[in-house]
Amino acid sequence: GQQLNQSPQSMFIQEGEDVSMNCTSSSIFNTWLWYKQDPGEGPVLLIALYKAGELTSNGRLTAQFGITRKDSFLNISASIPSDVGIYFCAGQSGTASKLTFGTGTRLQVTL
Amino acid sequence: DVKVTQSSRYLVKRTGEKVFLECVQDMDHENMFWYRQDPGLGLRLIYFSYDVKMKEKGDIPEGYSVSREKKERFSLILESASTNQTSMYLCAIQSGSRYEQYFGPGTRLTVT
């Protein structure tokens, strides 16, 4: 199956820095979702986006639904050690319930 | 809070054994999904179900079957486990009206 392209693949940042990552597709999506996965655990939903151009926040996290509907962005402000993990995007298109997942961005935070 | 539970966190089975992985939800959601997750390959959909006794193949159904006899329970069955089925297995649920999926904690299966 198709996978979405996530960038960057991995990031090493210092505590307190802001983080940006994105997800791109060659197809249009109607819904974009962002998940975080801790080692050995299942992904946890962070933010859901439903409209092109939509900007949604969840605490220090902000995500945007790209206006072309082919991309989405996640920003984390003032990173802390517990932000460590893998961040996945997921998109939904048409009327299908299935999601297409990104390849993941691994975030590591140094003190 | 959405609650999705999986029967085991860690499982070790021998080649050729029949393996049952169970997923239970408490949200009365219609849709349930089974994925496997492998390094470098991401999340791959094995099977999903829209309702009781209904199932649809995902991207990699070979070697697996599923059962959904009750709405809250979705089982993944490995008829004859093989070493290439060593993986992290994740169950997810989804309301019929929204596209967000909520995942269980995962089962790390090792087939020796």
Give an account of the 3D structure:
The complex is a heterodimer of chains A (111) and B (112). Chain A is 0% helix and 52% strand. The mean pLDDT of chain A is 94. Chain A has strands at 5-7, 10-14, 19-24, 31-37, 44-49, 55-58, 61-65, 71-76, 85-92, 100-101, 105-110. In chain A, strands 2, 4, 5, 9, 10 and 11 form a 6-stranded mixed β-sheet that branches. A 5-stranded antiparallel β-sheet of chain A has the order 1-3-8-7-6, with no helix packed on it. Helices cover 0% and strands 54% of the residues of chain B. Chain B contains no helices and 11 strands. In chain B, the strands form 2 sheets. In chain B, strands 2, 4, 5, 6, 9, 10 and 11 form a 7-stranded mixed β-sheet that branches. Chain A binds chain B through residues 1, 3, 30-31, 33, 35, 40-45, 48, 88, 90, 92, 97-99, 101-104, and chain B through 4, 31, 33, 42-45, 48, 50, 58-59, 90, 92, 94, 96, 98-106, 108.
Provide the fold topology.
The complex is a heterodimer of chains A (111) and B (112).
Chain A: E1 5-7, E2 10-14, E3 19-24, E4 31-37, E5 44-49, E6 55-58, E7 61-65, E8 71-76, E9 85-92, E10 100-101, E11 105-110
Parallel strand pairs in A: 2-11
Antiparallel strand pairs in A: 1-3, 3-8, 4-5, 4-9, 6-7, 7-8, 9-10, 9-11
Chain B: E1 4-6, E2 10-13, E3 19-25, E4 31-38, E5 42-49, E6 56-57, E7 64-70, E8 73-78, E9 87-94, E10 101-103, E11 107-111
Strand content of chain A: over 45%
* Radius of gyration based on Cα positions of chain B: 13 Å
Low-confidence stretches of chain A: none
The whole-number mean of residue pLDDT values of chain A reads: 94
Give the SSE string of chain B: EEEEEEEEEEE
> Residue ranges of chain B: pLDDT <50 for 5 or more in a row?
none
What does the radius of gyration of chain A come to? Answer: 13 Å
- Count of strand segments of chain B: 11
Roughly what is the average pLDDT of chain B, rounded to an integer? 94
- Please tell me what the overall shape of chain A is: globular
**Tally of helical segments of chain A:** 0
- Assembly type of the chains comes to heterodimer
**Major sheet attributes of chain A:** 6 strands, mixed
Helix content of chain A: under 10%
In DSSP terms (H or I, runs of 4 or more residues), the helix count of chain B works out at 0
Helix content range of the residues of chain B, please?
under 10%
Distance between the termini of chain B: 36 Å
One letter per element, helices H and strands E, the order of chain A comes to EEEEEEEEEEE
